[in-house]
Fold:
Amino acid sequence: MAAERGVRRLLSTSSFWLYCLLLLGRRAPGAAAARSGSSPQSPGASIRTFTPFYFLVEPVDTLSVRGSSVILNCSAYSEPSPKIEWKKDGTFLNLVSDDRRQLLPDGSLFISNVVHSKHNKPDEGYYQCVATVESLGTIVSRTAKLTVAGLPRFTSQPEPSSVYAGNNAILNCEVNADLVPFVRWEQNRQPLLLDDRVIKLPSGMLVISNATEGDGGLYRCIVESGGPPKYSDEVELKVLPDPEVTSDLVFLKQPSPLVRVIGQDVVLPCVASGLPTPTIKWMKNEEVLDTESSERLVLLAGGSLEISDVTEDDAGTYFCIADNGNETIEAQAEFTVQAQPEFLKQPTNIYAHESMDIVFECEVTGKPTPTVKWVKNGDMVIPSDYFKIVKEHNLQVLGLVKSDEGFYQCIAENDVGNAQAGAQLIILEHAPATTGPLPSAPRDVVASLVSTRFIKLTWRTPASDPHGDNLTYSVFYTKEGIARERVENTSRPGEMQVTIQNLMPATVYIFRVMAQNKHGSGESSAPLRVETQPEVQLPGPAPNLRAYAASPTSITVTWETPVSGNGEIQNYKLYYMEKGTDKEQDVDVSSLSYTINGLKKYTEYSFRVVAYNKHGPGVSTPDVAVRTLSDVPSAAPQNLSLEVRNSKSIMIHWQPPAPATQNGQITGYKIRYRKASRKSDVTETLVSGTQLSQLIEGLDRGTEYNFRVAALTINGTGPATDWLSAETFESDLDETRVPEVPSSLHVRPLVTSIVVSWTPPENQNIVVRGYAIGYGIGSPHAQTIKVDYKQRYYTIENLDPSSHYVITLKAFNNVGEGIPLYESAVTRPHTVPDPTPMMPPVGVQASILSHDTIRITWADNSLPKHQKITDSRYYTVRWKTNIPANTKYKNANATTLSYLVTGLKPNTLYEFSVMVTKGRRSSTWSMTAHGTTFELVPTSPPKDVTVVSKEGKPKTIIVNWQPPSEANGKITGYIIYYSTDVNAEIHDWVIEPVVGNRLTHQIQELTLDTPYYFKIQARNSKGMGPMSEAVQFRTPKGSNSPHGSPTSPLDSNMLLVIIVSVGVITIVVVVIIAVFCTRRTTSHQKKKRAACKSVNGSHKYKGNSKDVKPPDLWIHHERLELKPIDKSPDPNPIMTDTPIPRNSQDITPVDNSMDSNIHQRRNSYRGHESEDSMSTLAGRRGMRPKMMMPFDSQPPQPVISAHPIHSLDNPHHHFHSSSLASPARSHLYHPGSPWPIGTSMSLSDRANSTESVRNTPSTDTMPASSSQTCCTDHQDPEGATSSSYLASSQEEDSGQSLPTAHVRPSHPLKSFAVPAIPPPGPPTYDPALPSTPLLSQQALNHHIHSVKTASIGTLGRSRPPMPVVVPSAPEVQETTRMLEDSESSYEPDELTKEMAHLEGLMKDLNAITTA
Structure:
């Protein structure tokens, strides 16, 4: 038979391939075309037939005992004969050297002396037969499980018991499930014979029904599984005489839930005991089972139910009902039927050409639902870009290559078993071209449109055929570096463009185009290399999204990892929504599948999945819809009513259960009724699911009946209604004559209808079957309608307006119609309905209230002018944001002309629109309004913080990071904290501010071979965000340069020159200081004159002494330079409070009108800088001063000289220890002057710098505070509390030269009007004391200016406010002259004249200012 079947299959397949070949040739001429230059072949050379190759016998699941022998059958058919091998648990068995396992000639596996112990189970497992034909391929059989029964173990043993004669008894003997077939019983040490009265249940339990005296004795059960038998305890069963008294009815054994496979036999145990002896009957889903007439249902001894050859219809709930006349008890159990996988559609053999795409179809069924996997030549097919599982079970192979030939098998598997079906794939050679000219290569192949996932190619006709109307084209393409090529054909002749879909982003593809005419394929174009566009860094859609119902209340959703994940996928969000609603729910999932429980039964849901990576949500998948499984109804039918028709019939009416409780399609209704006097005699009637009434006939006269109705689905019967009673008539109503006239008739005319109502005839003893309504214009006989006898009103539709109708009503029965009752009515005139549709709201405005709240307001033109709502209209507001693109609208209803939308995201653009609804009418959506929520401080720290060492500079590190995920606004800067102690208080960490959105920063002068810890904090316009986690970095080991920074080795000559130069400079500086000190001690007058010179000029520059004429204040006010008269009590105050930088808006511009000499000097100064000037960690930690800044309500007076320093755009900055780390900068304008008087610097003055500003202790002599005029100490109380930045905040020009004032915190400001004698003691500051006025008391004609101070944020420590007044730098030439000679001074007479002149100029200046 097997050979005959193979011959038939061979004949059928050989005739089928020709049809496939022709079909493929028509569908894909480009794919079937031969490569250019290939040698022609005869038609017979490319013909190959499918080879029959299949299993005749496959192994099946087997149960064995240890020490026995087992044969696993396997036989395969093929020409030539296949080679048979065996796998156990996925690994090939080496049968050559195995003395217990051997391969039989037909391919079966023989295992002798099965080995099985507690710790050694070499033979138990899953076996698979593998057949191979060298020239064809490999196929695998289904998997068979070999189970070896273990050692006997009793889970329950018999116990001594007694039974009354005629009653039932049970004796337990439960062993492990594998050994149940090996259990037998003994009575009095003799084998027990089983019959219809004494049976053994599948569990091993012994049941004795209708016990007799002979059943008494000693019982034990024995397990014989190949080894020595194992005996249970021996117990005595006593049979007692019938006491002739009643006893309670109890279950000795109740049914329990069972699972069986289709075709197996099952026994539902049920044994009861009691006096009188009970009888057992069974019901399934409230349907009584007839065990007497059924061939498959047998009632065993004691009452157990045996079902042979189980089918899927046998599944359900079974009730065991025990009744002994006195009482009734029942027990129930669920019986589940499973089915092995079966193929509804098997894969078929396929012919194909290279580069084509094919699909093997495979459709399976089973319970539970089988899973499907594919095997090619015995190896598992792993899904990839070219092997894909589509439509749940089908295998798609893209871009065929020759190596894809072979046998493909679809293997279906569930909990019950597995099955396989296979097909062969043959790759045909390209058909040779016929005689005739072939087209040349297409010209000018270009990619006219390149996207992330598709490319559009265009070309021109071949030169050999300029018109090309009859040419078709094939586009071959592949990934660069991949040998597998795919093909896409044009859809019609003459078309010269193709769009290639489903490509990967940022991937290089190679394209070539080939033309075909009636003779064959021509030459191929030159390869075209095209790269798709890169996709946004968000994940792509999750492929192969599938959803299937796992139960009536749960759905399992599975998907695969996105092909374009753009980094590691952090998690997925599964969105689901009940069909017909707009409320979408979501759940976070970390795996590739999720089961949603608690769903509504038999309800359709839609699902979609969005993947998340570190950048946010990706592209959503398309929605997938699936319905939960049906179940039995969870509620009874509604509105059950009974109507007694006559003495022998009752009409039952009902309504279906509520839609939410139907749990499936209602397939019918079960009506159960009984006489009220006999509750056990129940009659059942089934009706269809569309029927909502049933006439019950054949009842007894004058008898009360109880009725109940239950709804049915394919899953079973739902709960029934409560019993409802009705009594039939003693005698029937009179139907020997027609009914009398109805007692009343009323009509109510409308425009196109008339409502007719009536009351029945007064004589209720005559049967009324219904009513006949006649109506017409002028005559009631135009049309007639009959209605049921219960009906009391009816609406006559489709009438003409303003028409006179005559209406008649008659009652009728089986004899005929009764006397009519007449009425007339005139329909109302037709009125034109209001044609005005609902107008959409206008003037929609979005008012931003906070970072998460926007108020939407609008106007309604359909309301009166006062815009008061007096009717029941309401408004619907909807809003969404376009980021991400797959967001859906959210809606809310309002009854006023505004709505407060809350819960929005910070710094996000939303669009809003409004519609109005009134009754059943709704307007269209209004025009959209847009609003962007306010920013919020960042709620997440910067990400991906990394620290690396700079190449060649071991003391310099580079910190890199990424912006925070939840920036909540535009990032305006970062703060880098670092320390060598990770547990130190945060105010003890060193601060490095970074302005702008830069994501990298260099920190220099760190200690070698030292661990540092780094934290980063982001800021926007609203403030600071949280800090990142500390990142540790150890600086590398290396040698320190002489200045603390890595330098290259110097040769000995250069080192000698440097040492000598430093020594000479040191001697010169000492000499100058000595001369200066000597001159200061000569006279008090010289000391006063020297006070007017800049300290910086005395020790920074040298030159010839020249007499400097006092400058004109109006023109050269910035030349004034006065020395301080007293010194600060603390020459080097150590501040521990650190300024915290503000945003980039706090940066103010500086004057750009500097002479080239200043730039040259700055460049010269910069030339002497080095990385050595960067501070060490210890230095920085001690130099974080709290800074107070002046704010003048009136233009300030020039009271301090400026010392020019290098620009902040230089990579390195150098400050004296008493100078500010980063003082805030502001312009102080002099009246009438077109340029700023002075500037100061802030931490934010680093927008264009590449290194941070740090306090570096200077080795130079500390200059005194800039010259100030003498005055009485006075402090403005308002200045003591001011803590804001300068108002004019603009961006900084990085190319400017910035003058800097050196200020000591405790130094008082002095007036420059008249030189004064120093006060007797150093002044001290107290925030509560008045501040010093800018002008002296002698200058009473001038305005008194108060100095406001601003405290730039400290880290929890307070310092006295420090007034700072910073003037502009002098002009270049004058500054040079003043700095050339530190000893230049005025004579007393000259100074007196100049001071008088200066006082006059100040008066003029004050007059101009007040004017």
